[in-house]
Amino acid sequence: MTKLSKVLYYKNVLGPETLTLCQYTTHQITYPTSINQALVYVLESHQLSFQMQLKQSKSLLKIRKLVPIFINEETIIFPIMHQRSPIKYYINACAINGLTSKSSKTIIYFENSTFITVDAPYILIYKKWQESLTLSHLLNS
Length: 141
Fold this sequence. Notes:
By secondary structure, the protein is α+β, with helices and mostly antiparallel strands. The chain contains 3 helices and 9 strands. One of its GO terms (biological process) is establishment of competence for transformation.
C-alpha cells in the first residue's frame, strides 16, 4: 500500500472467477481469491493473524456477529454482510466521511468524492462504524 492512498473497502466480485476488489482512495487492486483469503493475506502482510484479530475484537467489544478487524491505526475494517451472502463488503471505518439512508440501502461516503451504495440498513452500518471506532480507541489507549 502506498502512503498516499488509504484502503476504502474490500468487495467480492460475482462472476465465473473468484475475485476480490480492494478499493483505495486513488486506485484499486483485484486479488484472484476469495475475500477471506485476501484479508488473511493483507493481515499477514502486516504481521497479524486474521483469527487472532477476530478473537481480540470479539473479546473487547463483546459481540459475535459482523466483527470489526483492526489492521492498523488507519485501517479498521468491518463486514456488513453475513458470511453466506453472495456479495460481501468489508468497509474501512477510518475512511468513512458520512452515511446517508436511501430507502433500504445506505450510501457510504469516503474522501476524494468516492461513495458506494450498499444493500444494508443505515442503522446497521452506523452501528458497525461506531463499534470499529470504539475498537480503535480501546486498542490505542
